[in-house]
Amino acid sequence: MIPSSPTGTAALKDARALRRATLQALTFRQATLADVINFACTPQGAPLLRLPLERILRAAGHSPAEAARALAHTTRLLSVVEPRPTLGWLLDPRAVARRVPAFADALRPREAPGFPWSSPS
Fold first, then answer.
1. Phi-psi group of 10: left, alpha or beta (phi > 0 → left; psi -120 to 50 → alpha; rest → beta)
2. Backbone dihedral region of 84: left (phi > 0), alpha (psi from -120 to 50 degrees) or beta?
3. Which of 20, 75, 82, 114 is packed most tightly, with the most Cβ within 10 A?
4. Angle CA(99)–CA(105)–CA(18) in degrees, nearest 5?
5. In angstroms, how far is CA 86 from the centroid of its own chain?
6. Model pTM?
7. What are phi and psi of 86, to 5 degrees?
8. What band does 3 get if pLDDT is binned at 50, 70 and 90?
9. Which residues pair with 86 in a beta bridge?
10. Which distant-in-sequence residues (6+ apart) come within 8 Å of 11 by Cβ?
11. Which pLDDT score is estimated for 118?
């Protein structure tokens, strides 16, 4: 059965409102990245799966360069070419065991290299 136009339109508006509210919650530090990922795994959070990871990282406070670097690191670790990975791509059940750890590794803080790779001060 094909849903009627108002029902489909209402569902689309609800999905957009949920995505907007989630990005705002990240921006204002009312939610964490882990909260968003956990909620996206529930049936109620399914509309979040269409959000690009870059937008999520930017809303979470990462600069454009940091977001690009994290996504490049993730795709490089996985040896895949994904032009615009989404939360759905990250949480795809067929590859979640590889993608989530690679994404987490890309987001972990890196320490500056020490001796012998650092320049003398």
1. alpha
2. beta
3. 75
4. 60
5. 6
6. 0.83
7. -110, 175
8. very low
9. 52
10. 3
11. 59
Residue 37, token pair as written in the block: 């990922």
Q: How many of the other CB atoms lie within 10 Å of CB of 23?
A: 19
Answer whether 100's CB lies under 8 Å from 90's CB.
yes
Indicate if the pLDDT at residue 7 is higher than 70: yes
Alpha helices in 1-121 (DSSP H): 5-27, 33-40, 53-59, 64-78, 87-90, 96-107
Give the tokens for residue 13. 């508006």
Give the count of alpha carbons within 13 A of 45, CB side only: 15
Q: Considering the chain, what is the average pLDDT of its residues?
A: 89
Question: Above 50 in pLDDT, residue 116?
Answer: yes
Query: 97-111 as b/e, with b when 16 or more CB fall inside 10 Å?
Result: eebeebbeebbeeee
Query: Is the Cβ–Cβ distance between 22 and 51 less than 8 Å?
Result: yes
Are 93 and 110 within 8 A, CB to CB?
no
